[in-house]
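Quick one: structure for this chain?
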Amino acid sequence: MSEIIAQFDPSSATNGSFVITYLSSGVGKLVVWNDSAETIDLVFPDGSTDIAPAWVADIYELTGPAGNIAWKQDKTVNNTTPDISQCWVIAYQPRENIPGVFPIALSRQMKAGGGAITVTSGAITITSGSISVSSVGGTVTVGGTIAVSGVSGTVTIAGAVTVSNSLTIGTVSTTVPIQTTGASVVNVGTVAGTVTVSGNINITNSSINVGTVAGTVTIAGAVTITSGTINIGTMPAVTITSGSVNIGTVTGNVNVTGQVNQGNPIFSATVGFGGTANKNQILNIFNVSTSGKTYTFYSIRVFTTDITMPTCNVVYVTGADLALANAVTIQSHDAQSSPPASTANATSVDGGSLYNTGIIETLDCPENEMQDFVVFPDIIKLHPGGNLLVQIRSGTPSHIVRLTMKWSEA
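Got it. Here's what it folds into:
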């Protein structure tokens, strides 16, 4: 876990300092988010120095010792009334993952004028205010609001529309993707004609609101929603001619020519032997040739009480189902009254011959320790018409053995 160890306004004083907390002996990483017009100098406890540029987030590696970090103003960027002037210092442990690629320019705080901007061709990017577009052949990227009103004809966008705040449009005809990210909103109001999207609609943590549409809403691509929503008001129908859509509650009709998915289901199969009768135990998953699914295995676990350090293998066997002696129940990881069903067949056996051809990986398994063959980012894929099994060969029988395989189907 990270911790904010300091926050201050570099423009309110010419210098200052803060204590390195959270990091034992001052060893770890700092990320300084300098959301201000001040470039500041940094002096670390070991005497080394660096800078934190204005409107930049950067990462600093600390090797100790613990102590204070001093800062002072160096240069001020010429800017009128910045939106913010604040510096945050966040400490991370040496092995903590830090998202992002540093340094990061925080250009969103730069002012670009306070009035409206009218563009007849080309591309324009603004962070605040409004924009009136007559004809744009390129891309319009807006951090504020795009408002199109009083249009008797059709608004046609030939480029991509990337929205980080809101987009309000009337009559719409777009042949390119509409993509929203963050806390952004696309509002489609009263449309006399139809709404046609030839590309994809991708929504991440945001929403698309569609009001009254006299015609139909036709989407030729895919609709992808990640922690966002599509709100549909009054319209005859929503038609998707290809791709897929993930939909929550819909009051009208949804006509889909492709497939409606709710994500890739996850399954697992586990077999346990309380006292093995033989030296060999096997758990097999078979992907039937007609499943139409590719299985992605992300965990294959083995546990044993055998003290002889038995050998364990993950093996791929092509051809027909091995159909071992015992059927094994496959559990869905979607906890609901009617969970999705797996297309796989799972079987096991206490005994039998080991499979020595098609070995993907081998581990030696110590006693009373759970071993996992698949460690992130590793995965194993099983295509239709194949078997994937985990097998263990103990030195002697009469042990506790547990075998588990987890996978998704898509």
